[in-house]
Amino acid sequence: AVLSGEGRSMTIGITKELMDATPGGSGFSFVDLTADRAGTLFAETATRNAESARAMQSRIRNGVRIRDFCPDMVGLPEGLTRDEFQAEYGGLGGAKTQGIVEEIRLRLVGCAGLL
């Protein structure tokens, strides 16, 4: 994320999920996309500037709580075939997909370590 930028990082994550949705793959996973986004936000927060880097190092030294860096993923769909993703969620631009993406965004906002 730091080297390539957020947009590129998200595009790579989505591309990987679309590849996973093909026959023989593990399926399209909103759980994986959430983890990808959490990792990107962690990298952005930890490298924003020298002060944020020191703050992150201090936070980690004092003990890590997973929920501070990764939200609860219960209920997020995963293992979808390409056809299921298209039919049930309308693909990448579908309203149901956008609703889940917004839910993921709200869950990530609740992660204190990613602010």
List the helices and strands and how they pair.
Layout: H1 6-20, H2 30-47, H3 50-61, H4 82-89, H5 95-109
Helix pairs in contact: 1-2, 2-5
Protein model, in words:
The longest helix is centred in the middle third of the chain and has 18 residues, at 30-47. Helix content is 59%, strand content 0%. Helix 1 (6-20) runs antiparallel to helix 2 (30-47) and helix 2 (30-47) crosses helix 5. The radius of gyration is 15 Å and the shape is elongated. It is built from 5 helices and no strands.
Strand residue percentage = under 5%
Low-confidence stretches: none
Give a quick account of the main beta sheet: strands, pairing sense, barrel closure: none
The N- and C-terminal alpha carbons lie at a distance of: 16 Å
Shape: elongated
- The string of secondary-structure elements, in order, is HHHHH
Helix count from the secondary structure assignment: 5
Briefly say what this structure is:
The chain is an all-alpha fold and 115 residues long. It contains five helices and no strands.
Features of this protein?
mainly alpha, 5 helices
